[in-house]
Amino acid sequence: MTLAVMPGSRATAREWIGLAVLALPCLVYSMDLTVLNLAIPQLSADLRPSAAQLLWIVDIYGFLVAGSLITMGTLGDRIGRRRLLLIGAAAFGVASVLAAFAPSAELLILARAVLGLAGATLAPSTLSLIRTMFRDDRQRTFAIGVWIASFSAGAAIGPVVGGVLLEFFWWGSVFLIALPVMLLLLALGPWLLPEARDPDAGRMDLPSAALSVVAVLAVIYGIKRSAEAGFGLLPALAILAGLAVGLLFVRRQRRLEDPLIDVSLFRIPSFSAALLINLLSLFAALGFFLVIGQYLQLVLGMGPLEAGLWVAPSGIAFAAGSMVAPLLVRRWQPATVIAGALAVAALGFVVLTQIGGSWPLAVLVTGMLVFCLGLSPVGTLTTDLVLGSAPPERAGAASAISETSFEFGGAIGIAVLGSVLTAAYRERVAAALPDGLPAELNSAASGTLAAALEVARDLPGTDGAELAAGAKLAFTQAMELSSVFCAAVTLATALFAWLALRPARRQPPPAGALASEG
Question: What domains can you pick out in the chain, each with its CATH number?
Answer without folding.
Answer: 2-204+260-427+475-517 (1.20.1250.20), 210-259 (no CATH)
